[in-house]
Each structure stands twice: as structure tokens, then as C-alpha cells.
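User: Hi! I'm working on a homework problem where we have to compare a predicted structure to a textbook description. Could you give me the structure for the chain below?
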Amino acid sequence: MNCGTSFDIYDKIGDSSSWITSFFLSVFLVPLIFLFEIYLSLSITQYILLLVPFIITCSILLLRITKFYFLYRYLEKKNENQ
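Assistant: Happy to help. Predicted C-alpha cells:
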């Protein structure tokens, strides 16, 4: 039975927020990891304990921000056309 809920808005914005999140994380985190290596010389265990939670947290936050931005832009354009 169909409840009437429509998820077509998520299909219209696509995977653009995921692509942008991946791009910005790679652009900012790779130099950050190099700087950590140059100035701190951490062991691999310290890298894992420090960077894995940081990368996961940053990707969740950035994905939410970009998804909100694209949904907001889509709804704004949709309301202008009506």
C-alpha cells in the first residue's frame, strides 16, 4: 500500500552532495595529514585513533551541510516557478 510519501526530491538532486563532500575532504585532509607527519611524527596507532573519528565526523557534517544546501536551492527554484 502506498502511503503517499514522495522521495523524488532526493532523486532530482542526485549524488552531487556526496561528490562535493568527497572532493573537499580530500583537498583539505591530505595536506592536514602531511602537516601532522612533518610536525608531529605520530605512530600509525595514533594516526588511526586521531584521524578516523575526525574524518568520519567531518564527512557527516559536510555531507549534511551540502545536502541541505542543494535541497534548499532546489526548493527555492521550485517555489519561484510556482
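For your comparison, note the following. The longest helix spans residues 44-81. Residues 15-81 form one domain. Good luck with the assignment!
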